[in-house]
Amino acid sequence: MSSGMSPAASDGLAFDFARLDTTARYKLMSGVIVPRPIALVTTMSEEGVVNAAPYSFFNVFSDDPPLIALGLQHKPDCTRKDTTRNIERTGEFVVNMVDEALARAMCDCAAEFPADIGEPEALGLALSPSTTTRAPRFAAAPFALECRKTVSLVFGPNREILLGEVVALHARAGLLDPQTLRVDFAAYRPVGRLFGDFYTRQTDIFAMARRTPGEIMAARGARTDPA
Ligand SMILES: Cc1cc2nc3c(=O)[nH]c(=O)nc-3n(C[C@H](O)[C@H](O)[C@H](O)COP(=O)(O)O)c2cc1C
Fold first, then answer.
1. What is the pLDDT along the chain (227 residues), one digit of tens a residue?
2. Most C-beta atoms within 10 A of its C-beta, which of 40, 84, 88, 177?
């Protein structure tokens, strides 16, 4: 066990991140912060090869401007992955969201094919043209977000966090109500990442309305109005 664990914790375990090695930090961060959505990112190389790779250090961070973030880790020798290099060169990428039907292909896109071999072509995955980016999208993706790089924050020799602005969104027919813009989660069937080889389906959804302070206190049997 990494030396960062506190032996004094009586009500569970406590970890001092300054004393943890990178493996322990990775295990804790990616095992605890779950489930994470998966961005299956398509990019275009200088030679016109379409690259695809999954990224679960990914989420939405703003709707105005519409920003998403990707946590791009470099390879062990600190050289950049194909996705990172292609975005750096072109300033654009497509985030393909992953549903249950696309999950196996998403995972296979993480295989380390050489840069001159595109995962979609090697795996026989159909692509559709994008409207604003040269990088195409997966024809089978439930949703695809065309993005432009906004800024890249570099943390040491092997990490970077990239913010991208969404410029267009494609939705497969039957997943989104065009009037209300509400997503039909039962039809979408998104897949999230837990840790390592473990993933999750969103098949046990529950509703919970937000309450006012008055409603909360009334439910607790307490008064909020002056006595
Ligand atoms: C589900 C899943 C999530 C992943 N998330 C990340 C991530 O957030 N950041 C990262 O650097 N690599 C991540 N990886 C590993 C990359 O997908 C892998 O290194 C891939 O080969 C990179 O391909 P590229 O060189 O074509 O960009 C993930 C792999 C899987 C299977």
1. 456 776 555 789 999 999 999 999 999 999 999 999 999 999 999 999 999 999 999 999 999 999 999 999 999 999 999 999 999 999 999 999 999 999 999 999 999 998 899 999 999 999 999 999 999 999 999 999 999 999 999 999 999 999 999 999 999 999 999 999 999 999 999 999 999 999 999 999 999 999 999 999 999 997 666 65
2. 40
- Residue closest via CA to ligand 1's atom 30 equals 54
Ligand 1 pocket test, pick from 40, 59, 81, 102 with the greatest ligand atom count within 8 Å of Cβ, gives 81
pTM assigned to the model:
0.94
Which fold is adopted by the domain 19-219? Pnp Oxidase; Chain A (2.30.110)
Ligand 1: nearest atom to the Cα of 111: 21
- Which ligand 1 atom is at minimum distance from the Cα of 119? 26
Separation of CA 55 and ligand 1 centre (Å):
5
Domain ranges for the chain: 19-219
**Helices (H), strands (E): how many in the chain?**
6, 14
